[in-house]
Design goal:
CATH superfamily of the largest domain: Fido-like domain
Distance between the termini: 72 Å
Number of helices: 21
Number of domains: 4
Structural class: alpha+beta
Radius of gyration: 30 Å
CATH topology of the largest domain: Fic-like fold
Strand content: 5-15%
Helix content: 40-55%
Strand order of the largest sheet: 6-7-5-4-9-8
Largest sheet: 6 strands, mixed
CATH architecture of the largest domain: Orthogonal Bundle
Low-confidence stretches: none
Mean pLDDT: 93
Length: 491
């Protein structure tokens, strides 16, 4: 018969263990931990902490569980300095915590750096059972010169954080942050730190002139701020497009081919945005100039789009400099939306816009973000790389009140026409593929689906449109007009 001790050991071996186990003052739990340690199922990896995972996995496990470790073992501390802003261990695996003593506690993959300082304030952020310095307090901590540099973020990073506050909450939000920092500085005697913060905030608000360290700070002072999040997505796409991307030349050169393909481009580009007509109605609008009395503006949207994409010489124009780029972008939008004065054709937006949960670049950041994007565009090869980048730049910035998607696809195809490549049409049946590929980059920072979507679209868009009846029949055979829920495209 098995003894109680054997049964306990067998049970311990059979039960799955959490990756990390914490020392406790409970005697029963202490006995369990001691038994697990004797059996080799856990090992001590630092003060009051044990691990059950293989040694190679311990550092990553510890770093991933930093909040639990601090919460269980050091709940009376305040996450502070750079850690309060980053809310993660530093690249060196360090976390800074304000407490009543100066000391270091080291675990595999994680070093807790305790700094003697004031206890939590009323508005410090509550994380589980411990607190993190509020943004106002954390900025002051990071601007102190009385500690080693490794506790503080570079000033450029602090500027980026301040600019984000200004971007989201405006002048009032930044002023409110400064006011709270002044109160904390008075309470804790951090007046020198507040003086540095006051200089930075005043520079962002245009009332001071402190030297800026960050690109976004310099842009703000120069009067042309940019959206750092959008620029980050553009940089991801830029990197993906620096790799070889399949690109198809257009083997068809007749005037009828160009005109008919441009018609289908205008038709589907409007359809995807909700301006829907039967194909016969669109034919009459574009080729016979028959504007339906009940929908004149919708009809002019299709006619205006075709006026641009159906002009071979106009579609060969691409920008060699930023000013020309703006001229082309705004000029094409003005033609396309000419019959919609309410959306201010050719004029960049003055109020923020959004689609569902997606907030596009703020009006104050449009010009600067377009400029940053154009600088990247110039370093890409002509053809599909530049075309796809240009399309995403315009779509992600969303510089106009309306007509942004159509403008983005016009700018894309102008790049392809200029390079002698086959233009891309997004038919109705491919709409979801197109939108999901855009969202993969805008929401999940994955550029590859967008590249793959575009190369596939260029492939099925490369066909002869010289005979309109034959092209229409072929597009119908390939399901171009079908709803995405009803069919898939036939290549």
């Amino acid at each position: 018969m098995a003894t109680r001790k054997t049964q306990t050991a067998d049970a311990e071996r059979a039960e799955p263990l959490p990756p990390l186990l914490f020392a406790t003052s409970d005697r029963a739990e202490q006995r369990v931990l001691a038994g697990l340690k004797r059996s080799g199922r856990i090992r001590r990896i630092g003060p009051r902490l044990y691990a059950s995972v293989p040694a190679a996995k311990v550092p990553a496990t510890v770093q991933g569980a930093w909040t639990t470790i601090v919460d269980r073992l050091f709940p009376d501390t305040v996450l502070s300095h750079r850690s309060a802003i980053e809310l993660a261990p530093s690249p060196d695996g360090e976390l800074f915590l304000t407490s009543s003593t100066n000391r270091d506690v080291t675990y595999p993959g994680l070093r807790l750096r305790f700094v003697r300082g004031p206890a939590a304030l009323e508005d410090d952020t509550k994380l589980l059972h411990f607190r993190a310095s509020s943004l106002a307090r954390a900025l002051l901590e990071n601007l102190s010169t009385r500690h080693r540099d490794d506790r503080a973020l570079p000033v450029a990073k602090l500027e980026e954080r301040l600019e984000k506050v200004l971007h989201v909450d405006g002048d009032a939000g930044l002023n409110q942050l400064r006011d709270r920092a002044r109160e904390i500085a008075d309470e804790l005697g951090w007046r020198a730190q507040f003086g540095r913060l006051d200089q930075l905030v005043g520079t962002f608000l245009g009332t001071r002139r402190a030297p800026m360290k960050s690109a976004i700070g310099l842009a703000r002072v120069a009067g042309e701020p940019f959206d750092a999040s959008c620029l980050g997505r553009l940089q991801l796409l830029f990197a993906a497009l620096r790799e070889p991307v399949p690109d198809l030349a257009d083997p068809y050169s007749s005037a009828d081919h160009f005109t008919n393909k441009a018609f289908f481009d205008a038709y589907f580009s409007n359809y995807i945005e909700g301006t829907t007509f039967e194909i016969e109605e669109a034919e009459a609008i574009v080729f016979e100039r028959k504007i339906p009395r009940e929908r004149p503006k919708d009809a002019h949207d299709i006619a205006g789009t075709f006026e641009i994409v159906g002009d071979p010489s106009g579609m060969r124009r691409v920008a060699a400099d930023f000013e020309t780029f703006l001229h082309l972008l705004q000029g094409r939008h003005a033609v396309m939306m000419a019959q919609r004065p309410e959306v201010q054709p050719g004029v960049f937006k003055h109020v923020p816009n959004r689609a569902g949960e997606t907030r596009f670049v703020h009006p104050d950041y449009v010009l600067g973000t377009l400029r940053k994007g154009f600088e990247l565009y110039r370093d890409l090869d002509p053809g599909i790389a530049r075309a796809l980048f240009m399309m995403f730049l315009v779509a992600d910035v969303h510089p106009f009140i309306d007509g942004n998607g159509r403008s983005a696809r016009i700018m894309m195809n102008a790049e392809l026409v200029s390079a002698g490549k086959s233009t891309i049409i997004i038919p109705t049946v491919y709409r979801d593929d197109y939108l999901l590929a855009l969202r993969a980059l805008t929401r999940r920072h994955r550029p590859r689906p967008l590249v793959d979507m575009a190369t596939k679209a260029q492939g099925f868009s490369t066909m002869s449109f010289a005979s309109y009846p034959a092209a229409l029949a072929e597009l119908q055979r390939r399901n171009w007009f079908a709803d995405p829920d009803e069919a898939r495209i036939i290549d």
